[in-house]
Amino acid sequence: MMAIDETIEFLPLNIAILTLSDTRTFETDKSGQVLVDKLTAAGHTLIDRAIIKDDKDDLRTQLSDWLENDDVQVIISTGGTGLTGRDITPEIFHEFYEKEIEGFGEYFRHISMGIIGTSTIQSRATGGVANGTYMFAVPGSPGACKDAWNHIFSEQLDIRFRPCNFAEMMPRLKER
C-alpha cells in the first residue's frame, strides 16, 4: 500500500536548488522558488541555492562543489533539459552519475503526459546518484517543478513513504 507511515519520524533532507538560465535572477526565478517553497513547506532544509548560466564549465563546477560537500544530500536543478543548443543539463549530469535512476525521467514524462500531452517528449528530465548524493534535473517551467515535487519528490524524499523511498536508501548510497 502506498502511504505515509505516520509511525516513522520525518527526516528532513538537505537540498540544494540550482537554476540554469541565461536571464533569470533570484527575483525572477519562479521555477527555483517553487522548489524552495515546496521543500521548505515539506520540512526539508534548503542548504544552498544558485543560478548559473547555461554553461558546461559553470555547471560542472557547481555540481562538483555540491557533490564534495557532505552536507548536500539532494541536488535538484531546473532548466536546461530541453532540445536547444544551450540545453546541456542532462549531458553534464550524466558525466557525474555513478548510477542513473532511469525511472525518474520515465515517471516524470508519464506524469507530464496527462498534463501537457505529447509536449512531454521534449523533456529530458533525469535523475541519478553521485558520491552518495541524489541528483535530479527537471524542466525550467514552474509547472514542471510543481509536478515533479507534488508527484515524485514529496513521496520519494520522505522517509515515511511506503513501500519504499529514496530517503531510506541514503545511508547505503556509498557502499562498495
Question: What is the structure about, briefly put?
Answer:
By secondary structure, this protein is of the alpha/beta class.
Low-confidence stretches at least 5 residues in length (pLDDT < 50)? none
Strand order of the largest sheet: 3-2-4-7-6-5
CATH architecture: 3-Layer(aba) Sandwich
Number of helices, counting only DSSP H or I runs of 4 residues or more: 6
Question: How many domains?
Answer: 1
CATH topology: Molybdenum Cofactor Biosythetic Enzyme, Chain A
Main beta sheet strand tally, sense and closure: 6 strands, mixed
Strand content: 15-25%
Assign an overall shape: globular
CATH superfamily: MoaB/Mog-like domain
- The count of strands amounts to 8
The average pLDDT value, as a whole number, equals 96
Helicity level, as a percent range?
25-40%
Structural class designation: alpha/beta
> Which CATH class?
Alpha Beta
Radius of gyration: 15 Å
Termini, distance in Å?
Answer: 31 Å
Question: What order do the SSEs take from the amino end to the carboxyl end, as H and E?
Answer: EEHEHEHEHEEHEH
Structure explained in plain terms:
With 176 residues, the chain is α/β, with parallel strands linked by helices. It has one domain (12-170): Molybdenum Cofactor Biosythetic Enzyme, Chain A (3-Layer(aba) Sandwich). The protein is built from six helices and eight strands. The chain has a six-stranded mixed β-sheet, with helices on both faces. It has a two-stranded antiparallel ribbon with strand order 1-8. Strand 6 (126-130) and strand 7 (133-138) form a beta hairpin. Helix 1 runs parallel beside helix 5 (142-156), helix 2 runs parallel beside helix 3 and helix 4 (102-116) crosses helix 5 (142-156). 36% of the residues are buried.
